[in-house]
Specification:
Elements (H helix, E strand, L loop, with lengths): L8 E5 L5 H14 L13 H4 L4 E8 L4 E9 L4 E8 L8 H15 L4 E7 L3 H9 L3 E2 L12 E7 L1
Parallel strand pairs: 4-5
Antiparallel strand pairs: 1-2, 2-3, 3-4, 5-7, 6-7
């Protein structure tokens, strides 16, 4: 068994319109796109992530390398997680959980009491992350239609 190594990283609000963050989101797309047919890919364009109603977070190593990201759309009624991703080499170090907590704090700071998300059924690691964080399955929300390839989840803050 390998020894556990502490990973030094920070999470801050940043614009996703940076080359290293665009590469993260492109890697997410490269992973997800072949898993689902076009009609079941509910990706959010990077330009939409730059709007004022989105809190977008980037996790970086102590050396400034972007290793994870995610956003929360801050609607009047609730938050919705968008584009959560951690580079595969960095998974298992608590980075995804830390980004998730950070985004939930952003939603709370905006007075929101619920956060929703949509994820694909062929992403068991993501589903496990969300379940461990207290998210539960729910009905389709905010204009989504029921989709057998999607899992819709909710967490009360």
């Amino acid at each position: 068994m390998l020894p556990e190594i502490a990973v030094n990283f920070s999470i801050r609000l940043e614009t996703p319109a940076q080359p290293d963050v665009v590469r993260l989101i492109s890697a997410l797309d490269t992973h997800q796109t072949p898993l689902y047919p076009v009609e079941s890919n509910y990706t959010t364009d990077i330009s939409r992530l730059t709007y004022a109603d989105v809190a977008f977070a980037v996790a970086r190593t102590a050396y400034g390398e972007a290793i994870g990201c995610g956003g929360v759309l801050l609607t009047a009624a609730h938050g919705e997680l968008k584009r959560m991703y951690v580079q595969p080499a960095w998974r298992g170090n608590g980075i995804g959980s830390a980004i998730l907590r950070f985004l939930e704090q952003q939603a709370r700071a905006h007075g929101l009491r619920r956060v929703y998300l949509e994820t694909g059924i062929y992403q068991p690691e993501a589903i496990d992350l969300y379940r461990r964080a207290g998210y539960e399955a729910c009905a389709a929300f905010s204009g989504y239609q029921p989709d057998p390839l999607s899992l819709f989840m909710l967490k009360a803050l």
